[in-house]
Amino acid sequence: MDKIAVIGLGYVGLPLARLLATKYPVLGYDLSQERVVALKKGHDATLEVSQALLESVLNTKESPKGLTLSHEARSLEGHDVFIITVPTPVDDQKAPDLSALTQASLTVGGYLKKGAVVVYESTVYPGATEEVCLPILEKASGLKYNTDFYLGYSPERINPGDKTRSIEDIMKVTSGSTPEVAQKIDQLYGSVITAGTYMAPSIKVAEAAKVIENAQRDINIAFVNELKQIFDLMQIDTNEVLAAAKTKWNFLDFYPGLVGGHCIVVDPYYLAHKAKQLGHDPQVILSGRRVNDSMAEYHGKKIIEMLKTSALDPSNSRILVLGLSFKANVPDLRNSKVIDLIDYLKCRCMTVEVLDPMVEAHAAQALCGFDLESMEHCLGTEYDLVVHAVGHDAFKELKFYTKFDYRW
Ligand SMILES: NC(=O)c1ccc[n+]([C@@H]2O[C@H](COP(=O)([O-])OP(=O)(O)OC[C@H]3O[C@@H](n4cnc5c(N)ncnc54)[C@H](O)[C@@H]3O)[C@@H](O)[C@H]2O)c1
């Protein structure tokens, strides 16, 4: 039985390692000792894997399958399949930051043995696996590509916070550097993904398929965000327009909102980067980004306008923002545009309070420099305006004292 190592135990890596461990011996390796120590105790701060599910695969030493966790690179020794699930953010210039990917490749390269397969799951631009990661693996291992070791790419498509579609319920795209390896990788994923697999004809096709999923979503949301701005000028309710329009079978179901997180606001830049490198100016992709990135300020201005037209002085108003994370039912603050909206309001309003029971207080303090309010405090306080920023289930059925509600 192949020994599998999953490198990077975040939103993507941990659910995958847990699932594979139900059938195979799996090493979960992460640079962060803190993360590994918490996981060993059954605590997943991303809330993607429950304690019971995690513990059900941990500590099965007497069994050939199960999950072992480590923050020490030497534990990678002796593995046959390496699956790399490390972050691929953008830098300050919105250019791909491949440093975690190249670092992970360097580490894995040091432990490659003949016959090993390295599968990348991190989102990249088409070509990155073979152009950027492959040379690092070859150099670090001294082994020859497609003779001594092989590559694969299988993009992750999980939807954090979505408890109805777990990793095994989402069809997985697979690919490999030779037909035989592609088959082997496809069978490996097929053995745990109940929704099945789709074997792409090449690594580049699989890379491209992933990056366009999120770029397409970004553009579609940008379109409805632009509609929102137009219909606001016409004093038409955008959600009412969308409800009417979607009665046609081929009208796409998207809603206006703040677009944040680690994927949709990042991946289009990966595609744009590669396009520009090849001399193409990706106008649609980047205009979608611009529209979505402008929405926090747009809503900030609308909120101030709403207060003023209601004869409320913003500099004397008390506002409550419901939700801080980048989307509903997750604690993830990465690229949350609610933070931009709060910054905008804080410069103009007397009091802006924030409630988010999903987010850990220290994470909000570390990233944003303010404290979250308690549920008890917010339910007992009278506000001028409540911004319904993130639709966490925990907010359903709750009633806050407020003169106005603001929704997008
Ligand atoms: N979060 C999502 O919803 C989602 C969905 C699909 C695809 N993706 C893609 O999957 C990849 C991973 O995203 P994520 O959200 O799981 O990231 P994450 O930040 O949640 O987790 C990454 C983990 O990797 C660890 N790590 C970083 N560098 C490492 C290294 N060199 N060696 C070992 N461990 C290392 C970090 O400590 C962290 O625990 C990204 O490319 C992302 O675009 C994410």
Compute the number of strand runs.
12
| Approximate strand percentage | 5-15%
The termini sit apart by 52 Å
Q: Number of folding domains? A: 2
- Give the name of the CATH architecture of the largest domain: 3-Layer(aba) Sandwich
- Uncertain segments: none
Strand order within the widest beta sheet = 3-2-1-4-5-6
> The biggest beta sheet, please?
6 strands, parallel
CATH topology heading of the largest domain: Rossmann fold
What ligands can be seen in this structure?
nicotinamide-adenine-dinucleotide
Order of helices and strands: EHEHHEEHEHEEHEHHHHHEHEHHEE
Tally of helical segments: 14
Radius of gyration: 23 Å
CATH class of the largest domain: Alpha Beta
CATH superfamily label of the largest domain: NAD(P)-binding Rossmann-like Domain
Overall morphology = globular
What structural class should be given to the helix and strand makeup? alpha/beta
Chain oligomer state: single chain
Give the rounded overall mean pLDDT. 96
Helix content: 25-40%
Question: What's a concise summary of this model?
Answer:
The chain is of the alpha/beta class and 408 residues long.
What's the layout of helices and strands?
Layout: E1 4-7, H1 13-20, E2 25-29, H2 33-40, H3 51-57, E3 66-70, E4 81-84, H4 99-109, E5 116-120, H5 128-141, E6 149-153, E7 172-174, H6 179-190, E8 197-199, H7 203-233, H8 238-245, H9 267-277, H10 283-293, H11 295-309, E9 318-322, H12 337-346, E10 351-355, H13 361-368, H14 375-379, E11 382-388, E12 401-406
Helix pairs in contact: 4-5, 7-9, 7-10, 11-12
The structure holds nicotinamide-adenine-dinucleotide.
